[in-house]
Design a protein that fits this description.
The structure holds two protein chains of two kinds.
Chain A (H helix, E strand, L loop, with lengths): L2 H8 L7 H11 L7 H11 L3 H10 L11 E6 L2 H5 L2 H12 L12 E6 L11 E3 L2 E3 L4 H14 L1
Parallel strand pairs in A: 1-2
Antiparallel strand pairs in A: 1-3, 3-4
Chain B lengths: L1 E5 L2 E5 L5 H7 L23 E3 L5 E3 L10 E2 L4 H16 L15 H8 L23 E3 L9 H9 L6 E3 L6 E3 L16 H5 L5 E3 L3 H8 L5 E6 L7 H4 L9 H11 L3 E4 H22 L5 E2 L4 H10 L13 H17 L6 E7 L3 H7 L14 E4 H10 L21 H4 L6 H15 L17 E8 L2 E9 L1 H12 L7 E5 L17 H16 L10 H11 L5 H7 L8
Parallel strand pairs in B: 1-5, 10-11, 10-13, 12-17, 13-14, 16-17
Antiparallel strand pairs in B: 1-2, 3-4, 6-9, 7-8, 15-16
Classes of the chains: A alpha+beta, B alpha/beta.
The structure holds iron/sulfur cluster (3 copies).
C-alpha cells in the first residue's frame, strides 16, 4: 500500500480530516510538498473535488503544492517580529542561503518562505526551519544555524 | 422581538435576524457586495459594515440584532471604512469600465459610484492575468474578480460540484479551478450559475452576438431563430419590466426587427420531445429496460452524468433536447420544404442557458456533414444586449405571432421551462396514450414548485408508477445515487440543473433570485393555462410533421434526427 493510502486509512473517512491527512502526507515524504496526483487521490477518497483539496492545501503556509527543498526556512513577517527586526533577519537568511523568497537553493537543500505569525511572539524575531522554531534571532545566529544544517546535510 | 435603533429610528425586529435584513425591512439600505439572496453569507467583502453603540464596526450581513442595539449605517467611520475596502478592491481590478461586458450592470461599479469614489488613494497594483475562454459557454476573467465567493458558493453548495474555489491566501488569493486549469467538460457542466451570480464581469457567458449580427447582415443567408420556453417569461425583466412579465409576442416582434427571416418556437420541438420521449418511456416500461429513465433535455445534467455517473448513461433518454431536435429538423425537413440549401441556412437559438452553447457544439449534433445543426446559441442576456444595440423600444412593440411551420405549440411545451414541467408534459401524454382515455385533471401540482425533489404517482395500464423531479445538481445527485445503488423506486426521473429549472438558468437576467424564479414559474403555468392545446399529442402541427416526414415516433427518421448518444468523460 502506498504511503498516502496508509495515511488515509488511519482516520475516519470524513472531509474533516483533510488537513490532518495533508499534513501527515507531507511529513511522510522526503520532499515536503503535495503533488497534483496526490490531490486527485485524496479528493477521490473523500468524495470531494480536487479544487477543494488544493484550495485547502494552498491556504496554509505549512503545506505546499510546489516542490520545495529538504529544509523549508520560514521567516515570520507578522507585526511583533517585524517590530523586532524581522526585516534584517530576512536579509540575513537570504544572504546565508543565496536565494530569494519562494526560491529553492541550487543544491535542493533549502527553500525560503515568508510566513504569518508562528505563535512565538515572545521570542521574536522568529524563524521556523522544518518543524523547529528558532527565536530571539540576530544576523549572526542566523548564519550559524544555516551552516549547522549545511554541515549536517 | 427585540427593539433597537437604526440611524436613531426605533425599530422592532424578530430575534435572529441580521442587521441587514432588519434595515432593509425598514427601508434603510446598506450597500453589500458579496452578499446574495439565497446563498450562505460569508462576509468576505466588508462593504456592509455599520457602527454599533459599543464602538464596533460590524458586518451587517452576518451580525444579528440585539435588544438595545444602536446602529449607525452612515457614520463617518462607516463611510470611510467602506471607501477603503472598495478602493482596495479597485486597486487590484481592471477598471476599464466602458470596455466591460458588465458596464452599467456591475455591482462594483454601482458601489463605487454610490460611495462617490473619484480617485483611488492606493493607486493600482493590478497586473493582467490570463482570461479563460477555452470552452463554448462561459468566460472567466480573473482581471475583474473581487473574490466575493458567490460563484464558489453556487458551484459548491447549489450544484455540489466545486470546480472553482479560493486558492492561496491574503493578497495572493484567487478564485479558480485546481492548479489554475481552464474550465473544461471534464468537471464543469457549463450550467453558468456562477456567471449569473457574479457581481462583476469575472465570469460571464461567452458573448456571440457578433456572429449573429454578421449573418443578419449577409443577404445570402436565410437566418432563422428558435426561442426557448423560459425566455418569454424573463426577457421582459431583462428589458426593465417586472419579474415574471410574459412578453412572448413582443419578443417575436423584436426578433423580426433584428432581422431574422423566420421566428420559430422551441415549444414546437418540446412537444415533439414529449412524443418521442413518451414513447421511449412506454417501451422501456413494457420491456423493463434501463429504468428509471432519466430526462435528457438539460445539457448541464447530461454533462454531470457523463462526468460523474457514466454507469447511468443507459438510463438517460436517447432523445435530443428540444433545441437540438429543432436544429436537426431545420437543416433537413425545413430546408427541403422551403427549398433552401442547408449551407445558406443559419440557425440561431435564444436560450436561458449557457450549457446550451456547449450542447450545440457537441460533435453528435450535426446531421449534415460537420455543420452544426444549431449554429449559434445566445442567452437571454445576449438577446437583451442585441435589442438595446438596435435601439428597439421594447415596451412599444406590436404583438406578433410565431411563424409556421414551427409555431403551433401546446401548454405542455410551455411548461418545459420550469422544474417539473417536462415531467408534467410527459405524464399528460403518456397517461392518455397508455390508458386510452382523457385525463380528468391535467395539472400535476405535486411536481411543480421550488422543492428540491418532488414526486408523483400515476396509473399506467393498471399499474401504479412513481416518478420524481429534481432540480439543482446537488439534489439530482441524491436521486442518481439511489439509482446507482439500485434503490430507486421511480420509473421516470426529470432533472434540470438550474434552481427552478431553465427559468432560473445561467443565462437569465442578472439578479435572478428564488423570488424572481417563483414569479417566472407562476407566469409559465399561466401561459400553459391559456393555451388552446395543452397536451403535446394534441398538437396538430406535430401530427402533420409525422405524416409528412417522420412517419412514426421512434421510427427510422426519428432515430437519425431526433435521438443521440452520450460519452464517458473524465
Ligand atoms: S458553470 Fe456551473 S459547474 Fe461550471 S463552474 Fe460555473 S457553477 Fe460550476
Ligand atoms: S468570479 Fe465573480 S462571483 Fe466569483 S469570486 Fe470573483 S467576483 Fe465573485
Ligand atoms: S436547467 Fe435549463 S438552463 Fe439550466 S443548464 Fe439545464 S437546460 Fe440549461
Amino acid at each position: 500500500m502506498s504511503v498516502l493510502q496508509n495515511i488515509l486509512k488511519q482516520n475516519p473517512k470524513s472531509e474533516d480530516y483533510l488537513i490532518e491527512t495533508l499534513l501527515s502526507l507531507q511529513d511522510a515524504k522526503d520532499e515536503p510538498c503535495i503533488s497534483e496526483e496526490e490531490i486527485a487521490d485524496i479528493a477521490e477518497y473523500y468524495g470531494i473535488s480536487p479544487t477543494r483539496v488544493s484550495s485547502v492545501a494552498s491556504f496554509y503556509t505549512l503545506l505546499s503544492l510546489r516542490p520545495r527543498g529538504k529544509h523549508v526556512v520560514q521567516v515570520c513577517r507578522d507585526v511583533p517580529c517585524y517590530l523586532n527586526g524581522s526585516e534584517n533577519i530576512l536579509e540575513a537568511v537570504k544572504e546565508a542561503l543565496g536565494c530569494d523568497i519562494g526560491e529553492t537553493t541550487a543544491d535542493g537543500l533549502f527553500t525560503l518562505e515568508e510566513t504569518s505569525c508562528l505563535g512565538n511572539c515572545d521570542g521574536s524575531p522568529s524563524v521556523r526551519i522544518g518543524k523547529k522554531t528558532y527565536e530571539n534571532l540576530d544576523s549572526q545566529k542566523v548564519k550559524e544555524i544555516i551552516s549547522g544544517y549545511r554541515e549536517a546535510k | 422581538m427585540v427593539e433597537l435603533k437604526i440611524n436613531n429610528q426605533t425599530v422592532q425586529a424578530e430575534e435572529g435576524k441580521t442587521i441587514l435584513e432588519v434595515a432593509r425591512e425598514n427601508n434603510i439600505d446598506i450597500p453589500t457586495l458579496c452578499h446574495y439572496p439565497d446563498l450562505h453569507i460569508h462576509s468576505e467583502c466588508r462593504v456592509c459594515v455599520v457602527e454599533d453603540n459599543w464602538g464596533n464596526l460590524v458586518t451587517a450581513c452576518s451580525t444579528t440584532v440585539r435588544d438595545g442595539m444602536e446602529v449607525k449605517t452612515n457614520a463617518p467611520r462607516v463611510l470611510e471604512s467602506r471607501r477603503v475596502v472598495t478602493e482596495l478592491m479597485l486597486a487590484n481590478h481592471d477598471t476599464n469600465c466602458t470596455m466591460c461586458e458588465k458596464n452599467l450592470q456591475c455591482e462594483l461599479q454601482r458601489l463605487a459610484s454610490n460611495l462617490g469614489i473619484q480617485e483611488n488613494r492606493f493607486g493600482s497594483v493590478w497586473e493582467k492575468k490570463e482570461i479563460d475562454d477555452h470552452n463554448p459557454s462561459v468566460v472567466r476573467n480573473p482581471n475583474r474578480c473581487v473574490k466575493c465567493g458567490r460563484c464558489i458558493e453556487v458551484c459548491k453548495e447549489v450544484q455540489g460540484i466545486n470546480v472553482i474555489d479560493y486558492m492561496n491566501r491574503s493578497h495572493e488569493t484567487s478564485v479558480e479551478p485546481t492548479y489554475g486549469r481552464y474550465l473544461s467538460f471534464e468537471d464543469c457542466t457549463f450550467c453558468g450559475q456562477c456567471s449569473s451570480v457574479c457581481p462583476v464581469a469575472a465570469i460571464t457567458e461567452k458573448d456571440e452576438t457578433d456572429k449573429v449580427w454578421e449573418v443578419l447582415h449577409d443577404e445570402k443567408k436565410h437566418v432563422i431563430v428558435q426561442v426557448a420556453p423560459a425566455v418569454r417569461v424573463s426577457l421582459g425583466e431583462e428589458m426593465g419590466q417586472e419579474p415574471g412579465s410574459i412578453v412572448t409576442e413582443q419578443m417575436v416582434a423584436a426578433l423580426k426587427k433584428l432581422g431574422f427571416d423566420r421566428v420559430f418556437d422551441t415549444d414546437f420541438t418540446a412537444d415533439l420531445t414529449i412524443i418521442e420521449e413518451g414513447h421511449e418511456l412506454i417501451e422501456r416500461v413494457k420491456e423493463g429496460n434501463a429504468l428509471p429513465m432519466m430526462t435528457s433535455c438539460c445539457p448541464g445534467w447530461i454533462s454531470y452524468v457523463e462526468q460523474n455517473y457514466p454507469d447511468l448513461i443507459d438510463n438517460l433518454s436517447t432523445c435530443k433536447s428540444p433545441q437540438q431536435m429543432f436544429g436537426a429538423l431545420a437543416k433537413t425537413y425545413y430546408a427541403e420544404k422551403e427549398g433552401i440549401n442547408p449551407e445558406d441556412l443559419f440557425v440561431v437559438s435564444m436560450m436561458p442557458c449557457t450549457a446550451k452553447k456547449f450542447e450545440a457544439a457537441r460533435e453528435e449534433m450535426s446531421v449534415i456533414g460537420d455543420d452544426p445543426d444549431v449554429d449559434v446559441v445566445l442567452t437571454t442576456r445576449e438577446l437583451g444586449r442585441m435589442i438595446r444595440q438596435m435601439g428597439i423600444e421594447f415596451d412599444r412593440l406590436d404583438k406578433t405571432p410565431f411563424d409556421n411551420p414551427f409555431g403551433i405549440t401546446t401548454g405542455a411545451a410551455a411548461i418545459f421551462g420550469a422544474t417539473g414541467g417536462v415531467m408534467e408534459a410527459a405524464l399528460r401524454t403518456v397517461s392518455e396514450v397508455v390508458n386510452e382515455k382523457p385525463l380528468e385533471k391535467l395539472d400535476f401540482e405535486t411536481v411543480r414548485g421550488m422543492n428540491g425533489i418532488k414526486e408523483a404517482e400515476i396509473e399506467l395500464g393498471g399499474n401504479k408508477v412513481k416518478v420524481a423531479v429534481a432540480h439543482t445538481l446537488s439534489q439530482a445527485r441524491k436521486v442518481a445515487e439511489d439509482v446507482r445503488k439500485g434503490k430507486s423506486e421511480y420509473a421516470f426521473i426529470e432533472v434540470m440543473a438550474c434552481p427552478g429549472g431553465c427559468i432560473g438558468g445561467g443565462g437569465q437576467p442578472y439578479g435572478t433570485t428564488n423570488a424572481t424564479r417563483e414569479e417566472r414559474i407562476r407566469s409559465t403555468y399561466q401561459v400553459d393555462s391559456e393555451m388552446e392545446f395543452r397536451k403535446s399529442h394534441e398538437n396538430p402541427a406535430i401530427d402533420q410533421l409525422y405524416k409528412e416526414y417522420l412517419e412514426k415516433p421512434l421510427g427510422h427518421r426519428s432515430h437519425k434526427l431526433l435521438h443521440t448518444h452520450y460519452i464517458k468523460r473524465n
